[in-house]
Amino acid sequence: MTENEISNKIIGCALEVHKKLGPGLLESAYKECLYYLLQKEFSTVQKEKAIPLIFDEVKLECGYRIDILVENKVVIEIKSVDFLNDVHLAQTLTYMKLGNFKLGLLINFNVLLLKQGIKRVINGDL
């Protein structure tokens, strides 16, 4: 599956979670529910995936964790905030760069319409 095909399925699962739960819950609730649905759709789904920082050819464990990684291709960063801002986007891009991933989805569940809370983040050519 391509990154785009994977992301389309992820968005469908996120829409289902948002439809059932609505806005206003903690990020952890959305993460657990989305993780549950994604495990039914994909063969490889990792939650809280640790990602190291390579500095001067030394692998450093700095506590970076991707919320959800699907098929070792698409990074999902989940938020439940009033507004997404540049720091959230930078966080998603950082995870993508550290892991050399091409596509990420920054999803804010604390919105009335989920389509307003989804941002596709591209790192390099897709």
Please, could you describe this protein's structure?
With 126 residues, this protein is an alpha+beta fold. It has one domain (3-122). 38% of the residues lie in helices and 28% in strands. The chain has three helices and seven strands, in the order ααβββββαββ. The strands form two sheets. A five-stranded mixed sheet has the order 1-4-5-6-7, sandwiched between helices. The chain has a two-stranded antiparallel sheet with strand order 2-3. The relative contact order is 0.19. The model has no long low-confidence stretch (mean pLDDT 94).
Question: Helices, strands, pairings?
Answer:
Elements: H1 3-21, H2 27-41, E1 45-50, E2 53-55, E3 58-60, E4 65-70, E5 74-79, H3 86-99, E6 103-108, E7 118-122
Helix pairs in contact: 1-2
Order of strands in the sheet with most strands: 1-4-5-6-7
Q: Give the overall pLDDT as a whole number.
A: 94
Please compute the radius of gyration using only Cα atoms: 14 Å
Largest sheet: 5 strands, mixed
Strand content: 25-35%
The shape, in one word, is globular
Helix content: 25-40%
Whole-number count of domains: 1
